[in-house]
Write a structure and sequence with these properties.
The chain is mainly alpha-helical. The chain has a domain of 152 residues. It is 59% helix and 3% strand. The strands form 2 sheets. It has a 3-stranded antiparallel sheet. The longest helix has 19 residues.
């Protein structure tokens, strides 16, 4: 049975998102949130690919500009002003990501020396590494579609800054580690623990950007390499266990597996042993989710964006399987990787099940949907038309 084309539904979702957040029509003080906006940029690029309507490309570019001018600058309720990088206006316009990008939380960050409040921290601003890598990916997608290398340069400058500020050598010595959340100006850590998948996400994203840099025939300006950062991330992630039972985390593993496969096929990934570990962790996580009652619970007990993150990753399994089966010189003609991906494909109906549940108007009346409406609707749109996000 042929599935209906989701283009018109994705269009309606993204049109409403643009209106709600002040993207279109543009508002003087648009509401920007880095994670959601990274997915939204990719959604507009996918709509442009599907329809060839330049309106969608222009919305993606306008959103990039808004993110940089809102989240690349200090908050309105902060005594500081201007670019968070500290650059003067003209230089800040040329290098809008070089100071990193704020998350976009409702509350200002916790000041250095203030007591930590676990509940409050979720609503306070700062910088998240895993949000920055999503924005690097979105900028690279914009560069691929527009063939403008300035977006890759901004992504690489963001990668350089994020890596320098989020990684550190422990005072007692030993290998480098990472911080999960940093202050707005990247001067002090807000949450010093390391995100489970941050080293993996960083490694794959840096390799994606390095391949993009290498593919530019005659860049208008010299682009720095990320070779040292790639080595760092490989070492930080060495021997780590990626296993998680969080649907969003499992979706992230599948997204990284899809990107690793694309990079390997294109000759841009020198760590082939990582693929099996990532896929194995994803399988074990999927078994846990599949054996739980999570997807049988009513909407009020479920978080749509976490489930939709899983759905997006699952949607990439068709492409992942095709790449592995179609490139025996890279992945071999048989073996454990083939068997594991075949098992993962059994979970393909799960994506449609998640989408069907959250497309139901009654389920979208639940507080768990309305309290996170923007991130939920954008990730639902990504799940319905995922290629704009899944491609490198």
């Amino acid at each position: 049975m042929t599935r209906p084309d989701p283009t018109s539904r994705v269009h309606r979702i993204m049109q409403e998102y643009a209106r709600m957040t002040g993207l279109d029509p543009p508002l003087p003080s648009p509401r920007r949130y880095l994670w959601t906006d990274a997915f939204a940029v990719c959604n507009y690029l996918e709509l442009y690919h599907r329809t060839h309507d330049a309106v969608y490309r222009d919305l993606a570019l306008r959103l990039v500009d808004q993110v940089h001018h809102v989240l690349g600058r200090h908050r309105d309720d902060d005594p500081r002003n201007g670019w968070i990088s500290g650059l003067h206006e003209q230089q800040g316009e040329l290098h809008p990501t070089i100071g990193g990008l704020r998350i976009g939380k409702k509350l200002n960050e916790r000041m250095s020396g203030e007591p930590f409040d676990d509940r409050l921290e979720w609503d306070q601003d700062g910088q998240y590494y895993h949000y920055l890598t999503k924005w690097m990916h979105a900028l690279n997608r914009v560069s691929r579609v527009t063939r403008d290398p300035v977006y890759v340069r901004w992504a690489v400058e963001l990668a350089k800054t994020a890596h320098a500020r989020f990684t550190y050598v422990p005072a007692a010595g030993g290998p480098k580690r990472m911080v999960w959340k940093m202050s707005i100006d990247l001067s002090y850590p807000l949450v010093p623990s390391m995100g489970l998948h941050d080293p993996l996400d960083g490694l794959v994203t840096y390799c994606e950007l390095q391949m993009a840099v290498d593919s530019i025939p005659e860049p208008p300006v010299s682009l720095p390499a990320l070779c040292d950062e790639i080595v760092d991330m490989r070492d930080i992630g060495q021997g780590r266990n990626w296993l998680t039972d969080d649907p969003l985390g499992i979706g992230g593993l599948l997204f990284d597996a899809s990107r690793i496969a694309q990079l390997m096929v294109q000759g841009g990934f020198d760590h082939p042993d990582l693929m099996e570990g990532v896929v194995e962790s994803a399988i074990r996580g999927m078994r846990t989710v599949g054996g739980s009652r999570l997807l049988q619970l009513p909407a009020g007990y479920r978080l749509a964006f976490r489930e939709l993150g899983l759905s997006i990753g699952v949607k990439g399994l068709e492409g992942l399987s095709g790449m592995i089966e179609g490139n025996p010189a890279v992945f071999g003609s048989e073996g454990s990787l083939h068997r594991m991906v075949a098992e993962l494909r059994e979970y393909l109906p799960l994506a449609e099940e998640i989408e069907r549940f959250w497309l139901d108007v009654e389920n979208r009346r639940a507080g768990t949907w309305t309290e996170h409406q923007e991130i939920n609707m954008v990730m639902l749109a990504t799940s319905l038309a995922p290629d704009g996000f899944l491609m490198i």
